[in-house]
Amino acid sequence: MNFMGNGADLDAPLALLGGASARRFMQRHWQKKPLLVRGAMPGVQPPTTRAALFELAANDDVESRLVMQDERGWRLRRGPFARRALPAARRPGWTLLVQGLDLHEPAAQALLRPFRFVPAARLDDLMLSWASDGGGVGPHLDSYDVFLLQVQGRRRWRWGRARDTRFKPGLPLKILEHFEPTEEALLEPGDLLYLPPGWAHEGVAAGECMTASIGFRAPTRAGLAAELLGRLADAAPAAGDGALYRDPAQAASAEPGRMPPALQAFARDAVERALRRPGAIELVLGEALSEPGARVGFDAAEGRSACGGVELARGTRMLYDDTHVFINGESWRAGGRDAKLLRRLADRFALDAAGVAGASREARALLDDWLAAGWLQERAAGDPA
Ligand code: SIN
Ligand code: CO
Fold first, then answer.
1. Assuming Cys at both sites, which of 57, 60, 154, 279 could form a disulfide with 206, CB separation 3.0 to 4.6 Å?
2. CB under 6 Å to ligand 1: residues?
3. Hey, is 79 helix, strand or coil?
4. pLDDT, tens only, 27-39
5. Which residue minimizes the CA distance to atom 2 of ligand 1?
6. From the CA of 203, how far away is ligand 1's center (Å)?
7. pLDDT per residue as tens digits for the range 48-89
């Protein structure tokens, strides 16, 4: 079986990881040190063509960047790009980076599958870059874990621990001032380089090439706090925390500008209550992390049927914890057999006809709603589930 999820063998040696198992990779490399794998995906095909990628970059719904380096230095432009706005493919030293290719190309989504031993809550997207000879984005650091998969042509990567994380001033791109790589490799199609966050790296195209970046986001503490506190606050009135501040004991004040300590205590208590509600943080975390990307749209349609099985539509994010399932920013309580089935859908991206038939009437109604919303699609016959 080539999928991960319930029942996956986490101890099986994987060519993808150079013969290491998923478990061993996570213990030895994940967030710790790079791994270069030759022939990780032998025979890998680029998930799209150069022409189709350029066409996609003209689309408003697609996030794309163009990076060029010439005698005038580094230049960065943000898409969308009409084809004529892109340099000629034979002109050296430029690269086009397209985010979220998995939302547009089934073949790109398929390239994410082998990496399902990493929690989906960490997955960001698949970025595809096309570069002309010598193209690249310069030596830099990323704040996320990334698997760089060479899918066409060759690219020379150099990487090393970042001892000095200062960037060159005055540039449109974050380019390291002092890049001291300790490793170097020319990656061929099918080769893979895993880099943890914060490792300095630079990839330079050796002839025209395409590289897929499978990126895993790592939220910052401050970012998560802002996101979750906002959601907790939105939920507070519904959770019965609409109580009004009262101060019948307030004495007359000769310092009207001074904050009343009772109001400060009320505020502290209000925040603590919101945080203390059992399961509240887990709930808003699941909702936040299952929120689809800002540019994702779903095509709603009536009349779809779950009978033959369902699968997650492109762009749908589905997660779960011990009490809830989360899909596209919403949450449902689920227990017993329904929870098992919905979790299977989240883990394997699909639920077969037998699974659907085993769901309660309520869970079937949910699946029907999600199908109608375009969050799920009818399962293509023969897909693994
Ligand atoms: C690229 O694909 O050109 C850049 C990927 C990266 O260095 O993160
Ligand atoms: Co990078």
1. 154
2. 95, 129, 136-137, 142, 146, 201, 203, 211, 213
3. coil
4. 999 999 999 999 9
5. 129
6. 7
7. 999 999 999 999 999 999 999 988 899 999 999 999 999 999
